[in-house]
Hints:
This protein is mainly beta and 46 residues long. 13% of the residues lie in helices and 39% in strands. It starts with a strand and ends with a helix.
Amino acid sequence: MSVRELVVLGTASQVPTRHRNHNGYLLRWDGEGILFDPGEGTQRQM
């Protein structure tokens, strides 16, 4: 069975705050990563 993990990268919904970015998700699957719906703050931190 393949290893899968969903990582939540931001949790501030539509309005980012100083400590929380827009929603963003990283799906890790068999050693690869797929980024879904990253907001600008999440992209900046990466």
